[in-house]
Design goal:
This protein is an alpha+beta fold. The protein has ten helices and seven strands. 32% of the residues are buried. Helices cover 41% and strands 15% of the residues. It has a five-stranded antiparallel beta sheet with strand order 1-2-5-6-7.
Length: 278
């Protein structure tokens, strides 16, 4: 990612290639079958309705989404795809690349209002599929206030990917907070705002914010560490960049607020496979 600060406004241009010959991604050796997805989904959310079951079958067979890997979430009886699921799908489909840049005329850094434009290129000579994403303090979780720019970027990428691969359901990152806490509760629980890029003085550090999330939602630190390494696609967390860890914190905070039980199930999936990892 390249970022430049000009007259108080941030200009961001992102180019990421998903050609698996150039980017090493930990591909799943075996994709979850529908029956595996249904069993795990019922363990997390209880008995599924016939509509939810049929939709899950379609998402499994058409897109190879995995509930255990956090590709899908069931909220109020409706399925939502996650950013993780969309990026994994793009990698499997050998997406050529994604470009992202801010729509400057609609952005107001002082007010925390951001709008991004993303273009997904499915093939070398593709004209691209365009998606826009916006975020401001009024339509993001209070846990990620101060990270509106990252949320807007993620929403734009998600929307472009959904268009490119014909996914009709909304992504969970595109919807706002499902339940809004009281003002007093918000002030007591709100995470400190992220410091500006390059500014390492003042404000909570990345480690502080992650520890606060772990304490607040009573998460297992070791399982969070394992999940973070998979999310950042690194062998050890120390190999992850600051941007990758900050993106993980935004993702973790958002998921913890929306559906803590589903997050716990995702974390618990690391226990048998990685219990022996230091």
């Amino acid at each position: 990612m390249f970022a430049a600060l000009t007259n108080g406004s941030v200009s961001v241009i992102l180019w990421m290639t998903l050609d698996d010959t150039k980017l090493e991604l930990p591909m799943r050796q075996h994709f979850s079958s529908f029956h595996t997805n249904r069993r795990i989904a019922q363990r997390i959310w209880g008995k599924l309705s016939s509509v939810a079951t049929n939709n899950l079958r379609e998402f499994t067979e058409r897109y190879r989404f995995s509930v255990a890997s956090g590709d899908l979430l069931l909220i109020s009886g409706n399925w939502y795809v996650t950013h993780t699921g969309l990026i994994s799908l793009a990698a499997r489909k050998r997406c050529t690349g994604i470009s992202v840049c801010p729509a400057k005329r609609f952005c107001d850094a002082a007010a925390g209002r951001w709008v991004f434009r993303a273009i997904v290129y499915k093939a070398q000579n593709s004209k691209g599929f365009i998606g826009y994403g916006d975020a401001d303090p009024s339509n993001v979780s209070f846990l990620v206030h101060g990270a509106e720019m990252r949320v807007a970027e993620t929403r734009a990428v998600n929307r472009a990917l959904r268009k490119a691969y014909g996914i009709g359901i909304c992504s969970v990152e595109e919807i706002g907070s499902l339940s809004e806490p009281s003002p007093s509760d918000r002030e007591s629980r709100k995470l400190p705002a992220q410091p500006a890029k390059g500014n390492r003085s003042g404000g909570a550090t990345v480690r502080d914010r992650l520890c606060q999330l772990i304490r607040q939602y009573q998460l297992d630190p070791n399982l969070v560490k394992f999940y973070a390494t998979d999310f950042c696609r690194v062998k050890t967390l120390r190999d992850a960049t600051r941007d990758q860890v900050e993106d993980f914190i935004v993702h973790l905070a958002d998921w913890a607020e929306r559906d803590r039980n589903a997050l716990l199930s995702q974390l618990n999936s690391y226990m048998p496979a990685k219990s022996g990892v230091a």
